[in-house]
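Kindly inspect what follows.
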Amino acid sequence: MLGTFVVLYLFLGGCGAAALFVTGVWSLLFHRTETRTFQQSRAFWDLAGKLYLASFGLLALSAFCLLLDLGSPHRFFLLFLRPTASLLSVGSFVLLAALLASGCLAAVHALGWPAPSWARKGLEALCAVLATVLMVYTGLYLAWMEAVPLWSNGALPALFALSSLSSGMAAVLLAAPFVRDWALLSDWIGGLHRAHLVVLGLEFLALVVFLALAAINPFAGPGLAQLVSPDGQAPWFFAGFVLGGIIVPFAAETLRPFTGRVAPVAASEVLCLFGGLILRFCLVLAGSHWLG
């Protein structure tokens, strides 16, 4: 049975990777824009530094949760000193590489470490690749456990990857207003809101496919029943994840251009983050129920 620390490891790793992905891709696109002003460049530099630091922090917390779950530093370091072909070993190395890359970028921005433009862009591209692998890995970690039919679902990696991306976007959008002169980046932030709307829609579709595949798998029946039963995880799953993590944020993002209000959207981003965490808890609990 997977414990709380594994759930936190998967959530924090996915969210941190997504925030890193969004920041890296945003930076690469921003610095290709010839019409940006000096003030916009300064504002984005400040924002990117904080986002890289936040991504590093989330990934570090994820690694710490893995350490706590393994129970001893010795077993944790064996993942790197004696690597195997297991998915956990591969994911640990990708997580370590993402930590190093995001840490370097955070230092470049926050501490003013000198770095040529080509090196910074190379690190950002590397971060985008590593982050993509991490987001998919968080779903593969469960999907490859064939002993649990509810988790052995072809749509689970896509669902977790899109959930991670949605959570990472929510984290970035929550952090942006706390940066000086963030309003100068309003066009870019508006584009990120629109991208978040698309990701939320795709996440809902992935959820529908996941539930459909689970419904037609006779071995996944007990786990699925536990997930959607009122006596099981249904209240948390439907209210916390489906409603709070997808529907409410989707509605807020849809109405944002018409209302022009920031507070309701910010509240929905918080719900989106909690929804991603609740999804993982519900799936782990429902699947673990199969194991008794």
